[in-house]
Amino acid sequence: MSKILVIDDEEKIRTLLSKILSLEGFEVFQASDLANASKRLEYSEVDVVVCDVKLPDGSGVEYVKKIKEKYSTIEVILLTAFGNIPDGVQAIKNGAFDYITKGDDNNKIIPLVYKAIEKASLNRRISQLEKQLGDRHSFDSIIGHSKKLKLSIDAGKKVAATDATVLLTGETGTGKEVFANAIHNAGKRSKHNFIAINCSAFSKELLENELFGHKAGAFTGAVKDSKGIFEEANNGTVFLDEIGEMPLDLQAKLLRVLESGEFLKVGDNRPTKIDVRIIAATNRDLVKEIENGNFREDLYYRINIFTIHLPPLRERISDIEDLAYSFLKKFSVKADKKISQISPEYLESLKRHPWKGNIRELRNIIERSIILTDGDVLQADSLPHDFQFEDQQIVKGKILSAFELAGAEKVHIQKVLNYTNGNKTETARLLNIALTTLYRKLAEYGLGS
User: Is 0.70 surpassed by the pTM of this model?
Assistant: First the structure.
């Protein structure tokens, strides 16, 4: 049942309106002034407010603005004894659904209320979808509890409250766009657009047009003005993925955006002003790119105000099981299969894999396994052949399962060697064994050189 609040200081009019609306099957509340109306709104889920313009403690026109700021889904119909154009215009600007004159427009009330209820219902659905979208792109939606990931999330939450430019670093597939979205949704620009673009996916000319737009006649086929991403994202956030692959002359235009908040559209000679937050990401070493002449040093210092590194999956092995089950749930529904468990052998194989493609690779592996699985448990035999090969280690000519102690030891030593870039002294220190013991095990397992 839809709920209506009638606000009018004239008791006869208030009672008559309430009776008419009640006969239509609505639940109706009454208030004689704005103070009582505010109390009612606080405790009742009202769909539509029908409000007089002149009340003892304020103006209905101004009250509309307060209602819309606090209860965005409520629609307000204003009634006035003496209609005037300035009040009507201001009422609509403040968010009123309509502005009508008492007496002359009595026959419009009921149809108008029904239309306002439809709009209020649509407002609620949109609000719920926005909340779901916000939840999906929040820091809470980022799966994992490893120490390195938590450090990155904590840094992201701190910088989200500011307008600082952020540089996200990390290997391909570590979730940089997901992280950028979380920063945007936790910040003050969350109600505005978040637009992402991969700088490596376009040629120089197309990327310039995508970023900055063009004026009519700028090139063949440009029959009208076109907005670019920066203009579309005004007051919001632009995410520049793989910024290290942006051409040098476009880097100069981006630097101007960061320094002055303006840019030139293709074919335009007048600057366009915008207010956007920029989050950039790269899997390259930008310092080396500067040394090689591929990246502007001045731009680097502008985007490197706050850097957050996203750890590769091999450095957050404790998160693999949670991620695997998350993907299992998602893709089982997609494939219309009732798979609810992952075997221990399957999980152990996942934890031993080097994950060069990181989370993106894990996602693909889980989806592939679900397609191949007929039962209700993901088994190791549904993994690709290279995973199954990794599960065997050769020691003195004998094939060992990685579940055996020698196999597990070999895998662990190799991981530490990789971590130290082959530094055997540091590897022995981290393993807490003598250097001579390490050399003996390296010879035994056929590791190193």
Answer: no
